[in-house]
Structures are given as structure tokens and as C-alpha cells.
Write a structure and sequence with these properties.
Strand content: under 5%
Radius of gyration: 27 Å
Structural class: mainly alpha
Number of domains: 1
Distance between the termini: 76 Å
Number of helices: 2
Helix content: over 70%
Shape: rod-shaped
Largest sheet: none
Number of strands: 0
Order of helices and strands: HH
Length: about 110
């Protein structure tokens, strides 16, 4: 085998090694994407549940006669603040990583 042929064999082995490493990186990235997607779905379900609770409480306030609704107001405000905090925690990472000056759902008062 000539020096050129030996070099080509060695270079091809290096390329094969790099391709294998790239495939490992792709597989790892796919796993991380799947994990993040699962976490996102869990957080979305949590937010949906909290919003459902807030809607039910608002309905209770709506159906309350006279000034009795004042007694329910604090609980609704607490629920709304909790939901706003959940949005901040959930979207905070994406906001910091991608668009630190953009306004998002966490900037809105519920």
C-alpha cells in the first residue's frame, strides 16, 4: 500500500469516527427535545388546570348576590397571581434565551 492509500484509509476512518460522533449528538439532541416537549406539555396542562379553576371561581363571583362577592375577590386575585407566576416561570427561560426585551404573557395583569 502506498503512502497515499494509507493516508486515504486513515482519513476515511477519521471521517467515519466523526460521523459516528455526530450521530450520537443527534440522538442526544432528539432525547433532549423529547424531554423538553414532555415538560412543556406538563406545564401547559398545569396552566390549563389553573385557568379552569380561576374561571370557575370567577363564575362563582358572578353568581354571588349583593356584596358577598367581595369575600371571594381575594381568592380570585391569588389564583390570578399564581397563574401569572406560572407563566413567568414557564416562559422565563425562553424569554431570557431568545428575546430578553420582548413582552410576553407574563407581562399582562390577569
Amino acid at each position: 500500500m502506498s503512502r497515499k492509500e494509507a493516508y486515504i484509509v486513515k482519513a476515511q476512518a477519521k471521517i467515519d469516527e466523526l460521523v459516528a460522533k455526530l450521530d450520537q449528538l443527534k440522538a442526544k439532541a432528539q432525547g433532549e427535545i423529547a424531554d423538553q416537549k414532555l415538560k412543556s406539555h406538563e406545564k401547559i396542562a398545569e396552566l390549563e388546570s389553573k385557568i379552569k379553576d380561576a374561571k370557575a371561581h370567577l363564575s362563582e363571583i358572578t353568581d354571588t348576590a349583593g356584596d358577598a362577592w367581595e369575600n371571594l375577590k381575594d381568592k380570585f386575585d391569588h389564583l390570578a397571581d399564581d397563574i401569572g407566576g406560572s407563566f413567568k416561570r414557564f416562559f422565563g427561560k425562553d424569554k431570557q434565551d431568545n428575546h430578553p426585551k420582548d413582552a410576553g404573557p407574563e407581562d399582562e395583569k390577569l
